[in-house]
Amino acid sequence: MTFSTVNPAQVWSPPLRALYSTHIVGDKPILVRDFIHSALYHPIHGYFSRRSRSVGVLEKSIKFNQLEGQKAYMRYLDTIYKQNDISWFTPVELFKPWYAHAIAEAIMRTANFSVPLKIYEIGGGSGTCAKGILDYIMLNAPAKVYNSMTYTSVEISPSLAEVQRETVSEVRSHMSKFKVECRDAADRCGWGNVEQQPCWVIMLEVLDNLPHDLVYSENQVSSWKEVWIEKQHDRETLNELYKPLKDSLITRCVDIMDLEKTHTTQSNAVSKVKNIWSKVYPKPRRCWLPTGCLKLFEVLHEVLPKMSLIASDFSYLPDVTIPGERAPLVSTKKDGKSSDYENYLEAQGDADIFFPTDFWLLERIDHYCSGWLKLQRDHSPKKGRKRRTITLETSSFMEEFGLPSKTRTKDGYNPLLDDFKNTKFFLSVPTHNVK
Q1: CA-to-CA distance for 184 and 191, rounded, in angstroms?
Q2: Most distant CA pair in the chain: distance in Å?
Q3: How does residue 51 score in pLDDT terms, banded at 50, 70 and 90?
Q4: What DSSP assignment string belongs to 55-105?
Q5: How far is 237 from 343, CA to CA, in rounded Å?
Q6: Where are the chain's structural domains?
Q7: Burial (CB count within 10 angstroms: exposed 0-12, middle 13-18, buried 19+), residue 82
Q8: d(CA 47, CA 152)
Q9: Whether 257 contacts 289, CB under 8 Å
Q10: Phi and psi of 429, rounded to 5°?
Q11: d(Cα 332, Cα 340) in Å, to the nearest integer?
Q12: Are 90 and 204 contacting, i.e. CB atoms less than 8 angstroms apart?
């Protein structure tokens, strides 16, 4: 197999950071997604294991109606961040219980109550969403719905799993309906038998922390190559290694994105011009692939074929300096101050790695994993499971399903609607319509 390496002058090389990297990268090269997975989720060295308080928990809900306006709200946020010394508060935490109540309302409007309500939450954080949804259904749904429902949190972090149990147990009756399964949701083995009944899956700020792969092209017309990571000969620095596309998860993701279509659909004249231009002005290309999302969706569609999905995440991230399409932010917090790294290889267990979500691509992955997109493209006579999907701005989702008046300040400023402009909701539900 042919391969190439990046210029050593371009790699990350602070010697004091080498120790942790050697825990991730052994004697053999690893894919970028495996590096990111270890940096975030390694049981000893990973960010979410070492920083159990990376996601904050507010002792009490914010009384937005008592705040004068945006300046007062920002001062309040600054105070609680300093008091808690955590990386960040999730939207479901900042706007509790109203954020979770909106999700519960969305579920209640479309759920089939002729069968027991089953909810799965992937990456439940502090348990605030679970408790808020259980509270809402207990108070607003028919008693038989609450009494027969189950809520399962699939959480990879043991420390966060314990926090979730503590949060939900504040209401005693919830505990007979709630459980935490401490495992990786993308691992098919943990799911057991296929669930044939309708169910709901919730993922809030999960997609951004899923492992991604990286592909590289040395110019505008060269083929994409997989990026691997290996140790340098000095054993203290890391190197990017480029190999032809071979990994099945990467090639499936490239296929879904149609990254290669520009090479196959252009006219000969256009191709010749691009070839000449690429030689005169070569421009390397880097593209981050949501292979962790693809793997998770493949598993979910297999084990929960009748699932309805609600996912919320960042649609873009500001001030990203790491190169490549859909590149991540790598951020750490020390002494109450956040700082961003300029190279993803600097992640060493004390840094969060989070990506923007391409919601157009997310929809394609959803249809692909349900079998519909692939069957349509291949003109297969088989029946695929078509899905109804919609992407909404967070403000639109909350105006439709929530109570925005509860998060409005005295002067009319509403952080739930006015902030988080870079977040969206993705809703996907099954349908029997295959035409």
Answers
A1: 10
A2: 71
A3: low
A4: B---SS---GGGS-SHHHHHHHHHHHHHHHT-SB--HHHHTTTHHHHHHHH
A5: 13
A6: 31-259+274-434
A7: exposed
A8: 24
A9: yes
A10: -130, 150
A11: 6
A12: yes
Within 10 angstroms of residue 232's Cβ, the number of other Cβ atoms is: 14
Statement: residue 435 has pLDDT above 90: no
CATH for 31-259+274-434 is 3.40.50.12710
Question: Does an H or E element contain 430, and which?
Answer: strand 423-430
How do beta strands 178-182 and 30-31 pair? Answer: unpaired
193 CB-near residues (< 8 Å, 6+ apart): none
Distance CA 181, CA 154 (A): 5
| Banded pLDDT at 383 (limits 50, 70, 90) | low
b vs e for 295-308, b when ≥16 Cβ sit within 10 Å of the residue's Cβ?
Answer: bbbbbbbebbbbbb
Give me 319's structure tokens.
């001030």
pLDDT bin (cut points 50, 70, 90) of residue 27 is confident
DSSP secondary structure code for residue 325 in this structure: B
Q: Is the separation of the CB atoms in 90 and 171 below 8 Å? A: no
Task: Give me the DSSP letters along 277-315.
Answer: HHHHS---EEEEE-HHHHHHHHHHHHH-TTEEEEEEEES
The most confident of the ranges 181-195, 233-247, 332-346 is 181-195
**Could you tell me where the beta strands, DSSP code E, fall in 134-237?**
150-155, 178-182, 199-204, 213-217, 225-231
